[in-house]
Amino acid sequence: MPLIDENDGLRALLRRTQSVAVVGVSDNPRRPSHTVTRYLIDHTEWTLWFVNPTVDELFGRPVYPSLDALPEVPDMVDVFRRTEHLAGVVDESIAIGATSVWFQLGLVNDVAATRAVHAGLDVVQDRCLEIEFARLIRR
């Protein structure tokens, strides 16, 4: 499984994804994680899971404290956490059996990304899931 950074690879990953866990989702409407999540609800057919230990509910759906608390394993883990937390999220993603991790805009951690790739996950760094979905799939 590769580090994905070109259009064909991104498009293929987005097309095969059926479920996404949004880690670090915020209930603050000014935060990017909030607006991206709203977009994903409105424009994708994905099953969405929300992860944040400080929020109980968002958009009328439960928010889980961790990836291992989710009722099922997501295909993709979309990460809105600071760079220093990416390695931990990657470890959790590997442990639960996710197949890809997506680090949002501004988030790069080559060590964590390499660990994910070596564990068989597809990895995207420093890209917005909303922007790429709109650009490559929704048109």
UniProtKB/TrEMBL annotation:
Cited Pfam families: CoA_binding_2
SMART domains, per the entry: CoA_binding
Species the sequence originates in: Ilumatobacter fluminis
InterPro entries named among the record's database cross-references: CoA-bd, NAD(P)-bd_dom_sf
Domain named CoA-binding: residues: 13-107
Protein name: CoA-binding domain-containing protein
